[in-house]
Specification:
Elements lengths: L8 H19 L5 H11 L2 H23 L5 H24 L2 H25 L11 H21 L2 H11 L4 H25 L5 H10 L3 H12 L4 H21 L1
Helix pairs in contact: 1-2, 1-3, 1-10, 2-3, 2-11, 3-8, 3-9, 3-10, 4-6, 4-8, 5-6, 5-7, 5-11, 6-7, 7-11
Family: Belongs to the 4-toluene sulfonate uptake permease (TSUP) (TC 2.A.102) family.
InterPro entries: TM_pro_TauE-like, TSUP
Keywords: Cell membrane, Membrane, Transmembrane, Transmembrane helix, Transport
């Protein structure tokens, strides 16, 4: 693997472990793949890392949809998609002009702010037991989170934590959270592929590395599926928020 992006066997091992974390995050603790994002960005050139990671994420999304496809809340998805599309376009423009440092800084700040807002809201009121209803407030919140999610997922594949904060703040329970998130990211990440190709982030060389790494997503997803039923709702939410904060700090400090 040394000829692909000039990485060593040890670096490939780290990327393989990060690919396993992607699988785990997609079927257990959404947002944990911010750790994978940091590993890929540390080993590969920052912009190139987003192109390599995207197909790995899509592999994880497919496995998550196969596992939780019946638990999605589609009204929430339809409210999010228009705003996410706008965010993806903004992110594409931003990528065309911003340097790697600006990208990492902006995403890190957004993740930390989202985690803080979610913690504050959860202290103000307990999460509702029912799934969200299509009120004006819900549409406004979906729009703001959707634009942020589209922007962050386009520029750094970091939309997971933003969407995690939205779904937690909307009161989703574990299976509904995972099912809605699975379908959301399969559709959004697949839609990002043409933009990434157009920006030169995905090419034959990146896909060759993806082919070698994709197999490691599967055991991570299997481990995540085995663990998720053993994680209670409160711990699940704490892990999601902790993963978001960790990912934001990693982006700011790297």
């Amino acid at each position: 693997m040394h000829d692909i992006f000039g990485i060593s066997p040890w670096e490939f091992s780290a990327l393989a472990a990060a690919a396993m974390v992607v699988g785990f995050s997609k079927t257990a603790v959404s947002g944990a793949n911010t750790v994978s994002l940091a590993v890929f960005a540390a080993i590969l050139p920052a912009r190139a890392s987003t192109g390599v990671l995207l197909p790995i994420l899509i592999c994880g999304d497919i496995l998550a949809v196969l596992t939780y496809r019946r638990h999605a809340h589609w009204p929430t998805l339809w409210r999010l998609f228009p705003a996410v599309g706008a965010g993806v376009v903004l992110g594409t423009v931003f990528l065309g002009f911003a340097g790697d440092g600006a990208v990492r800084m902006s995403i890190g700040v957004i993740l930390l702010v989202m985690a803080g807002v979610t913690l504050w809201r959860r202290k103000q009121a307990a999460a509702a037991d029912a799934e969200p209803t299509p009120t004006r407030a819900a549409r406004v919140k979906a729009g703001s989170y959707g634009v942020l999610g589209g922007f962050t997922t386009m520029v750094a594949n970091a939309g997971g934590p933003v969407m995690s904060m939205y779904l937690l703040s909307a009161g989703f329970k574990k299976l509904g959270f995972l099912g809605t998130s699975a379908w959301f990211f399969l559709i959004v990440n697949s839609a990002k592929v043409p933009f990434s190709v157009g920006l030169g982030l995905i090419d034959g060389r990146s896909l060759l590395l993806d082919a070698a790494l994709a197999v490691f997503v599967v055991p991570g997803a299997i481990i995540g599926r085995a663990c998720v039923n053993r994680i209670n709702q409160r711990l699940f939410e704490q892990l999601v928020i902790a993963a978001t904060v960790l990912g934001g700090l990693q982006l700011l400090l790297n």
